[in-house]
Amino acid sequence: MTTALGGAVEVAEGVVVESRAIARLTATAARSVDGVVSLEPTLLGFVADLGRQLRDVITGRDVADPVDGIQVSAEPAAVRLGVALSVGGRPAREVSVEVSRTVRDNVQHNLGVRVDEVRVTVVDVALIPPEARVPQQQVAAVAP
C-alpha cells in the first residue's frame, strides 16, 4: 500500500520515500530512453528551481541537482508523475510511450512506489539529421 505524507510516500511501515527521490529516479529513467533529447522544465518547475537555488545561496549549501521537467504529485490514493521532454531521432509517440513504461517500471521496482499515472508532455522535437544519429548501443560501447 502506498500512502502520501506531505511530499513523501510511505511504501511500507516505517519506510518513507521523499518526492525528490521519486523525481530523481523518474528523470534518470526518462533520460535512459533512446530518443529523449532532454528534459524540459515547465514554468512551475523553473520557478521552483530558482527558489531552491536562492535558498541554497542564502544558506550556503550547494545547489541541488535539478530534475527539470519532472513533476511528482503524491496523494493518499495516487502517485502521479509528469515528464516534460524534447524528443529526436524517433517518432515522438513511440518515445513517449516508452518513457511512460520505463518510468513506471523503474519507480515501482526501485522505490516500491505504486505509480498510478505517468503523463508525458512533448515540449519540443529536435530535428536530427539521420547521418548525425548515433545508436545508443554505440554510445554505450564507447563509454569508459
List the helices and strands and how they pair.
Elements: E1 3-4, E2 8-12, E3 15-18, H1 19-31, E4 36-39, H2 43-59, E5 70-75, E6 78-88, H3 92-111, E7 117-126, H4 136-142
Parallel strand pairs: 6-7
Antiparallel strand pairs: 1-2, 2-3, 4-6, 5-6
Helix pairs in contact: 1-3
Organism: Kutzneria albida DSM 43870
Pfam families: Asp23
Family: Belongs to the asp23 family.
Mind explaining what this structure looks like?
The chain is an alpha+beta fold and 144 residues long. The protein has a single domain (3-142), classed as 2-Layer Sandwich (Alpha-Beta Plaits), CATH 3.30.70.1350. Helix content is 40%, strand content 29%. It contains 4 helices and 7 strands, in the order E-E-E-H-E-H-E-E-H-E-H. Strand 6, helix 3 (92-111) and strand 7 (117-126) form a beta-alpha-beta unit. The chain is globular and about 45 Å long. Pfam families: Asp23.
Keywords:
globular, alpha+beta, Alpha-Beta Plaits, 144 residues
CATH class reads: Alpha Beta
Q: Beta-strand percentage? A: 25-35%
Q: Please provide the ordered H/E string of secondary-structure elements.
A: EEEHEHEEHEH
Uncertain runs? none
Proportion in helices:
25-40%
Average pLDDT rating: 79
